[in-house]
From TrEMBL:
Keywords associated with the record: Acyltransferase, Transferase
A Pfam family it matches: Acyltransferase
Entry keyword annotation includes Transferase: yes
InterPro entries (UniProt xref): Plipid/glycerol_acylTrfase
Entries under SMART domains matching the protein: PlsC
Protein name: Lysophospholipid acyltransferase family protein
Transferase listed as a keyword: yes
Length: 211
C-alpha cells in the first residue's frame, strides 16, 4: 500500500514539473522477477526506473547511513529498500536481494557502478542474478541530471534492452564477470545511441568543478 502510494505521488510530481516520461522497450521486461541494471546518472533515476517498470514493484539497495534517520528509515523500509554497508557489504548484501527475487514479489534495481561518479562496474548484480535465477535488464536514463533541471521540462526517456541471462554453468571468476560486464556496457551504449545518436553523458559534479 505504502509503495503504491509513493509511486503514485512521484508520478504526479514528475508529471506536474516535467511532463510525462517516455518509456521505450517495455516489451523486453519479463513477466517474472528481474534485475534492472543501468548507469547511475542522477540521484532520482531509481525513482524513474521504478515508475517505468510499473506495475512491477522493486526493491533497492541503500547505504546503511540513510537508515539512521527514523523518518527516512520508515520510508525506505516501506519502499522495499534494505541497508548495505558499502565499505564492507557482507553476506546480507547478496542474500537479502536473492530472497526478494526468488519470492517473485519484487524485482531489483541496481547500479553496477555503485555510485553516480564511477564508471567501473562491480560484480554484485551478476552474482545476485545467477543465484536468484533471474535475468539482467540493461536500462538507461536520458534527461535532466539535477532536480532543478526537471523544471525546464527537458524530455525524460528510459529505454529497456533485451534480457541478459546468466548461464548456470558460468563460473563467476574474473573472466566470467568480465564477460557479463562487457555485455552490459555494450547494451548501455546501444540503448543510449538508440535514444539519441548524439548523446554523451557528462557528470554534473565534474562539470561543476570544471567551471
Amino acid at each position: 500500500m505504502f509503495y503504491s502510494f509513493m509511486r503514485g505521488l512521484v508520478r504526479l510530481i514528475i508529471g506536474l514539473i516535467n511532463g510525462k516520461p517516455h518509456y521505450q522497450g517495455r516489451e523486453n521486461l519479463p513477466q517474472g522477477a528481474y534485475i534492472l541494471v543501468g548507469p547511475h546518472r542522477t540521484w532520482f533515476d531509481p525513482l524513474l526506473y521504478a515508475l517505468a517498470g510499473s506495475p512491477m514493484q522493486f526493491s533497492f539497495m541503500a547505504k546503511e547511513e540513510l537508515f539512521k534517520n527514523p523518518v527516512l528509515r520508515f520510508i525506505l523500509v516501506h519502499a522495499n529498500a534494505f541497508p548495505v554497508n558499502r565499505a564492507h557489504p557482507g553476506p546480507s548484501a547478496i542474500k537479502t536481494p536473492v530472497k526478494f527475487l526468488r519470492s517473485g514479489q519484487f524485482s531489483l534495481i541496481m547500479f553496477p557502478s555503485g555510485t553516480r561518479h564511477s564508471q567501473e562496474l562491480k560484480g554484485g548484480a551478476t552474482v545476485i542474478a545467477k543465484m536468484a535465477g533471474v535475468p539482467l535488464i540493461p536500462t538507461v536514463y536520458q534527461g535532466p541530471l539535477t532536480f532543478k533541471r526537471l523544471f525546464t521540462r527537458q524530455r525524460i526517456t528510459i529505454r529497456f534492452g533485451e534480457p541478459i541471462y546468466i548461464d548456470r554453468k558460468l563460473k563467476l571468476d574474473d573472466a566470467g564477470q568480465k564477460q557479463i560486464e562487457t555485455k552490459m556496457l555494450a547494451a548501455f551504449d546501444d540503448l543510449d545511441q538508440e535514444i539519441d545518436p548524439n548523446f554523451h553523458y557528462v557528470d554534473p559534479a565534474t562539470k561543476k568543478h570544471a567551471n
